[in-house]
Design a protein that fits this description.
about 425 residues; lyase; pectinesterase inhibitor activity; mainly beta; eight-stranded parallel sheet; cell wall biogenesis/degradation; EC 3.1.1.11; Pectin_lyas_fold; 7 helices
């Protein structure tokens, strides 16, 4: 299988910032402080008997928004970012609700950590759309910038691409500037995402987040979430390569649509995707298709993907020409301790019988699992023969990847008004 069409292009070393070993360690340490430690579940959580009950408290029709966004001027604001800014820093512990009326909002939105407990809802998928076309090759993202100018963008985020190594993290301005004397010129910091969320307990409902850069643009993120205990219900994430960046922290996606071509669900978060439509789009000629690239680097940290009750199939643009392209893969481990499990999902026949791909050499240590899937692409008879691949048959093992166990969802989701199944959908 030729990987040329969907390997991320290596960056030449003359474009890379000079990074010392100390700086690299600083980045790794910073990332390690931002995620959930394994074994850190609240005391007594697993003693609760939530069983297979469906929690459904959604009732947006009874919610009175704090502010309204409308392009025609009929609301409090005409842009989403203005509404987010109205939350203010150091906000109280009350949830802040933003209603975004139907319309296409061409803007780049940042929801900082200083604006917690935001609920953002729209008028439905395809009706309320936040869109842009930032991408890896974008002219507005090229060139150089000093640390000071870039640090205005939410405490600073640095992306370093070293061949096949990528790490995105947030670091303290003062600590970082002392390490490099505030002199570094950053050429690898492309902010390719349309919306980025860092505040805790963010909720999005009935929204579309779209990157229109196209398959030729390489990495082009539609949505980045570094929001702990965040939930997304009936939202659409649309792009090609690297559509949805689950950067870190617990996340839950319910009845969402996620479109893409290569690694279009990626990152280090512990995340559950429940009853979602996973839609593979038409790639570039000789291109390839890979759904996930989970990036868990440390063995003592929580991270990984659980796709439960999802449907993995071709989008409308790929359906009529699906036979002209190589088969798709369910995922490829991005880092050493990557975890990805598909369970109780429908897998269509566009998926390669091998199922999984090892592009970065982590097939010995990663965890790739499948449990009670259906559909013409779900057979595990010809799956990869890796130590890290598991055909899960024990419900007790599969249960570890449920909402209750994998992201401790029964601790925080019941108050959100987002429906979820806490355990296995089929016993």
């Amino acid at each position: 299988m030729c990987e040329k069409g969907f390997e991320m292009k290596n960056i030449t070393t003359d474009l890379l910032p000079k990074v010392t070993t100390n700086l690299t360690q600083l980045l790794l340490n910073s990332l390690a402080t931002s995620v959930v430690i394994k074994g850190g579940n609240p005391p007594g959580l697993h003693e609760l008997n939530f069983g297979n009950e469906l929690y459904n408290f959604l009732g947006l029709e009874t919610v009175q928004p704090n502010v309204v966004v409308a392009k025609d001027g009929s609301g409090n604001f005409t842009t989403v970012q203005e509404a987010v800014n109205s939350r203010g820093q150091g906000a109280s512990g009350q949830r802040y609700t933003i209603y975004v009326k139907s319309g296409v909002y061409e803007e780049y939105v940042v929801i900082p950590q200083e604006a917690p407990l935001i609920t953002m809802y729209g008028d439905g998928i395809g009706n309320t759309v936040i869109t842009g076309n930032r991408h890896f090759n974008g002219s507005d993202l090229k060139g150089t910038a000093t640390f000071n100018s870039i640090s205005n963008m939410l405490n600073f985020k640095l992306e370093i691409t070293l061949g096949k190594f990528r790490l995105l993290t947030r670091i303290d301005h003062e600590q970082f500037s002392k390490k490099i004397n505030n002199k570094i010129i950053v050429k690898l910091l492309w902010f390719t995402w349309i919306v980025e969320v860092w505040s805790k307990r963010f909720i999005a409902v009935n929204m579309t987040f779209r990157n229109t850069a196209g398959p030729e643009a390489q990495q082009a993120v539609a949505f980045l979430s570094g929001s702990d205990k965040s939930a997304y219900y009936q939202c659409s994430f649309e792009g090609y390569q690297d559509t949805l960046y689950t950067f870190h922290s617990r996340q839950f996606y319910k009845q969402c649509q996620i479109f893409g071509t290569v690694d279009f669900i990626f990152g280090a978060s512990p995340a559950v995707f429940q009853d979602c439509d996973i839609l593979l789009r038409k790639p570039l000629p000789e291109g390839g298709l890979v759904v996930t690239a989970n990036g868990q680097k440390f063995s003592n940290l929580s991270g990984g993907y659980s796709l439960q009750g999802c449907k993995i199939h071709a989008a409308d643009d790929l359906k009529p020409v699906v036979g002209q392209f190589a088969k798709a893969f369910l995922g490829r481990p991005w880092f050493q301790y990557s975890e990805t499990v598909y369970m109780e999902s429908f897998i269509d026949d566009l998926v390669d019988p091998q199922g999984w791909l090892d592009s970065w050499g982590y097939k010995e240590t990663a965890y790739c699992g499948e449990y009670k899937n259906s559909g013409p692409g779900s057979s595990t008879d010809q799956r990869v023969d890796w130590p890290s691949f598991h055909v899960i048959t024990d419900p007790n093992t599969a249960n570890q990847f449920t909402v209750a166990e994998f992201i401790n969802g029964t601790e925080w989701l019941p108050t959100y008004g987002v429906p979820f199944v806490s355990g296995l959908e089929t016993l």
